[in-house]
Design brief:
Radius of gyration: 19 Å
Order of helices and strands: EEEEEEEEEHHEE
Mean pLDDT: 79
Low-confidence stretches: 203-220
Distance between the termini: 55 Å
Strand content: 25-35%
Strand order of the largest sheet: 2-4-5-6-7-8-9-10-11
Helix content: under 10%
Number of strands: 11
Number of helices: 2
Shape: elongated
């Protein structure tokens, strides 16, 4: 069964010297015991564009995807995006979309080794995420940044956000929302972004109900 799979070896690629030369999309899902995914040395997935890794909590390395443009990581091990990021995810010069979701062990992560072509970064429901990449400002092609459901995230990186984003969305991040409100401590880091959506969640003590107040700021 796939849930019991612990390693993907050379047999996965067949007898060819290049692994799946025409494969464009791949989803790896519910392989919760998988720890190692070995690579070959002649271009594992040379033209691969989209990769989804879902509910693979133990895997700590990936093969090379030199043409990858869309990457979804959901409920994965934090090592995948640590400072010692696997070689398979380094120098992804074609990567445009990075979606990180429901990774409960993720406390921090890095982006500088991914390449600088990233346009859209989405971080959703990472309950223990405490900090964003310190070098986030180096993503000069970034157009959209979304941060939702990260209650322990306290602040934006010390340096301001990249100059390029057209939109910023922050939801269900109570600590971060307060700092990113107009006049807050992190406002100077993001005030240059034309479209900002900050949804604040407040508690009404009288009725003990959660009320959402959505603030959309557009500067033209």
């Amino acid at each position: 069964m796939m849930e019991e799979l612990e390693s993907i070896g050379h047999e996965f690629y067949g007898k060819g010297k290049i692994g799946f030369p025409s494969l464009m999309k791949l989803k790896l899902e519910d392989t919760r015991s998988l720890k190692k995914w070995k690579e070959i040395h002649h271009g594992d997935f040379a033209v691969h564009k989209q990769l989804e890794v879902l509910n693979c909590r133990s895997i700590t390395n990936l093969p090379k995807f030199p043409s990858l443009s869309d990457l979804l990581l959901e409920n994965c091990h934090q090592t995948i995006l640590s400072s010692d990021i696997p070689s398979g995810l380094q120098n992804l010069y074609s990567l445009k979309e990075l979606h990180i979701s429901k990774c409960p062990t993720l406390v921090s992560f890095t982006v500088e080794k991914l390449g600088s072509s990233l346009k859209n970064l989405r971080i959703l429901s990472c309950a223990n995420l405490e900090s964003l990449p310190m070098r986030l400002h180096e993503l000069q092609n970034l157009e959209s940044l979304s941060i939702h459901g990260c209650p322990k995230l306290v602040c934006l990186p010390a340096s301001r956000l990249p100059a390029s984003p057209c939109s910023l969305s922050i939801m269900e991040c109570a600590l971060l929302e307060e700092r990113c409100a107009e006049g807050g401590e992190d406002w100077p880091k993001m005030e240059h972004i034309p479209e900002k959506h900050i949804t604040r969640v407040e508690l009404c003590p009288r009725f003990e109900l959660k009320l959402q107040v959505c603030a959309a700021v557009s500067l033209g």
